[in-house]
Amino acid sequence: MLSRADRPLPEVIREFAAFGVEAGYFVPTAAGLAKSIIDAHESLRRFLRRKGIHDFESQGQGTSHKVIRDIDIALTDHMEVHQISLYRPKSKSGDPRLWVRGLGGVAKPGNLLALFVSAEGRLTLVNCSDSATWSSRLVTGSPLNAALSAATISDSAEELLARLRDICRQGFIPSLRDGPTGIGFTLETHLGIAANSRRAPDFKGIELKAGRTRGSGASATRTTLFSKTPEWKMSALGNGNAILARYGYPEAATGRLQLYCTLASSPNSLGLYLQVAESAAFVEMLGPAGIADLTWPLGDLEKALATKHRETFWVSARQRRSPSGAEEFLFERVTHTRQPLVTNLGPLISSGTVEMDLTLSRKSSGAARDHGYLFKIWQRDLELLFPQPVVHLLAE
User: Fold this and answer.
1) How confident is the model at residue 195 (pLDDT cuts 50, 70, 90)?
2) Partners of 125 in the beta sheet?
3) How far is CA 72 from CA 48, 124, 374, in A?
């Protein structure tokens, strides 16, 4: 289990993300090291498949189907070339397994080990719990630093940036809609983007996300990464009405049944929280009874993140009130990201960094209305999901 690692996983994710590198993680047990067996958990299998390294799903069982590849093990002053076996035994339903030859010489039980793919497409392993090796990532010219630095990707969107600079030069502009959605509607209108409910990117393949900032420049609200409906057939509560019946509460003014709350890794005031299942295959909403009331396949959430945010401009605006009380915005900052590190999503949900908002109410007809199951993050944590975010000050 990753939660039993002797180095905090969120800390390591942050460091890999600073290099723009996505990694798969595992923690060897004493029994696994003694038997030369590592269970390839669901998250690790998806990582290897997505990177084109190996697909356990299409692999047959038995030694005749075993795949052996070279793997680089990063040490403090050099890389060692070893071999990794990827296989499904005939016993135990063919549970996917892997083994790195010589792993016992570079890892101990409980160490946090990471796999990433170098710019040359080579699978690389690093023991993040080995202080000397892990610290070498910051030493220019070290094998680990070179491998991580070479994997970085960067890009720009000059046309959109130029148009945003033009909007910034207009100074504070009145909001074209009241309420929380006014900032996004105002920005899209000035860019000539018609408002609709499409899922496609907003501007020539680029997703736009607008948010208000405090006087300090910090984001005043969380930003929505994506919305994803639960897999109802896998959930104990099979629809919105069932959720409202179990956890809803009456609105003070109208008595309407509603449920507006944020879920993270610790129980909220209603006792609701999120967890990643031990298999790492699902994200679950649990209540006080400890039952998985709602379930999302983690792979579906990862796909939603990758599809929604191939390239994104996170636009920040200073907000003020005019003498008449109307809201006005000065769009002044852009954080440009691309190619999310989707493998990080599960661990960030586990740590409470990525949260989910429920937005449910009951219509007069008795049907449930929802505004999405919204997975959110603070802008300060974007670097954990996106490689090397680039910040542009629009007034420059």
Assistant:
1) low
2) 73, 115
3) 15, 5, 39
